[in-house]
Amino acid sequence: MTKPITLSLDQPINALTIGDLQAMITNIVRKVIREEITRDYYINEDGIKVFYEEEDIAPEYLAQLNRDYEDIVSGEMELIAGETVLEELRELELNVSG
Fold it and tell me: Alpha-carbon distance 98 to 83, whole Å?
C-alpha cells in the first residue's frame, strides 16, 4: 500500500519526488479501476450504455422496450432510417451534420 501524499495547491511541482509522483499515479489508477469494477455498466464504442447484468436494467425501461417492440411487430409503430431523418431535417433547412 502506498503512503498518502498531502499537497497544497500552492506547492511547487518541483517539490515532489519521483516516489511521490509514482504514488499519486498509483492511487489515481486504483481509484479509476475501482470505479470501473463497481459500475454495473460500460459505454461501448458507439456510446451506448451496456449493462453487465440484465437485472441491472430498470424494470420500467425493459417494459417500455417491450411495448415498443410489440408496436413495431404489430405495425402500430414504424421504424425509420437515420439517413431519412437527416434528409427530412435538411429539407427543413436545419443545420445538421451526418
Answer: 8
